[in-house]
Design goal:
This protein is α/β, with parallel strands linked by helices and 373 residues long. It has helices at residues 7-36, 38-43, 49-56, 60-72, 89-95, 108-114, 117-126, 138-159, 166-172, 185-193, 206-218, 255-265, 283-286, 292-308, 320-330, 361-369, and strands at residues 77-79, 84-86, 175-179, 198-203, 224-228, 240-246, 266-277, 335-339, 347-353. α3 crosses α4, α6 runs antiparallel to α8 (138-159) and α8 (138-159) runs parallel beside α10.
């Protein structure tokens, strides 16, 4: 070790690396707990490893070793005298149930995206990216798992209500397109909630379209349909009253073209409802953001990759609000409002219209001052 190196700083950073690596492995343990029903079984109450294994119908030896990881990670409590394990209710809230607080599905990202790491390493040497098809069908399943509980609870009751008057328009009957619809769950939820409106979901994944169509059929939704489509071919006629995009634009090979097509496909008084990443376009401003390491890493493993694979812009996950606003303005959106959705530390809602934003009282005053009388 060179004499100029601060040994205390070396030790501190080495310990941080160990925490990072431990967290990665524990993510797999959370995925196992979710997939095997161990978290759900633990909610029933304190149990020995034998009792927990019996509840979940699993091998006791495997469960006992998994519980060791849960205890030392601080996820489960342990009483050594009785060899009984328990999960605090606050932890259970974040790892079980159908509420948007359940973060267990997010663990799937590590194993799903980890499969393409050798290909990602190769792109560092040759340039380009990993094609979207190489992530299928895992990525469709992953995105569905990440959003399903949140959208079930919040899409209609909270998220859509952030746009003034939108719920009333949907209830009355409007034409809606959900672009990059994935498994189609958002479009199907809207179709179920607003039977007078018509919905079409577009995606370039045949796997996603098949899943979406199957769910629509199972829900008996006559007002929802899905089409396989590259978003740069978004039809401009007939016009849509509402176009939604949930975590879609930053992945696109040609995002500027997609936004331009969205603008042209909207009715003059239509609304573009864009959920995308809550970040700054300036790296230094993302340093305090605790989600930024996650977002940049996902970008390297997926978001940037699927764009560069098609000689695209490669915006990356953290393209940021500043660039998003500039691109939306270039696409013809005269008004862009942003909202931070509840229970969602990653996304920002962009509410966009082609009509210019109304002047504020101060702006109106300034305009009057500059007017000849």
């Amino acid at each position: 070790m060179p004499e100029t190196v601060d040994r205390a700083s070396v030790k501190e950073f080495a310990n941080r690396l160990l925490d990072i690596y431990a967290g990665g492995f524990l993510t797999y343990m959370i995925e196992i707990g979710e997939a095997t029903g161990l978290f759900t079984a633990a909610v029933e109450g304190p149990a020995s490893s034998v009792q927990l294994a019996e509840r979940a119908g699993l091998s006791e030896r495997h469960v006992r070793e998994w519980l060791g990881a849960m205890v030392v990670a601080g996820i489960f409590d342990y009483q050594p005298e009785s060899a009984v394990y328990s999960m605090p209710p606050e932890h259970a809230t974040c790892l079980t149930g159908s509420s948007p607080y359940n973060m267990a599905p997010r663990a799937l990202g590590l194993s799903r995206l980890g499969k393409v790491v050798p290909q990602v390493i190769d792109t560092f040497r040759r340039g380009g990216g990993v094609p979207y098809a190489d992530y299928m069908p895992d990525f469709t399943d992953l995105m569905d798992a990440l959003g399903r509980h949140r959208y079930d609870d919040l899409l209609v009751s909270v998220y859509l209500g952030l746009a003034p008057g939108l719920l009333e328009r949907l209830a009355g009957g409007i034409s809606v397109a959900d672009i990059g619809c994935g498994s189609g769950h958002v479009a199907n939820l809207m179709g179920q909630a607003f039977p007078r409106s018509s919905f079409v979901g577009y995606d370039m994944s045949d796997t996603g379209i098949a899943v979406a169509t199957s769910e629509a059929d199972s829900m008996s939704l006559a007002n929802v349909r899905f089409e396989l489509l590259d978003l740069v071919q978004l039809p401009e006629e007939p016009k849509f009253d509402l176009i939604t995009a949930f975590d879609v634009i930053h992945d696109q090979a040609r995002p500027a073209e997609v936004l331009a097509h969205v603008s042209r496909a909207l009715a003059p008084s239509g609304t573009f409802y864009m959920f995308d990443i809550r970040a700054s376009s300036r790296l230094e401003e993302n340093i305090p953001n605790r989600m930024a390491p996650y977002m940049y890493s996902v970008s390297v493993l997926h978001c940037m990759q699927v764009s560069l694979a098609y000689d695209g812009a490669g915006l990356g996950t953290c393209w940021g609000e500043q660039l998003a606003r500039r691109m939306l303005a270039d696409a013809g959106f005269g008004s862009v409002q942003t909202f931070e959705p509840p229970l969602d530390p990653i996304n920002l809602l962009y509410l966009c219209s082609k009509e210019p934003a109304p002047l504020s009282a101060a702006e109106l005053c300034d305009a009057d001052v500059g007017t000849d009388r």
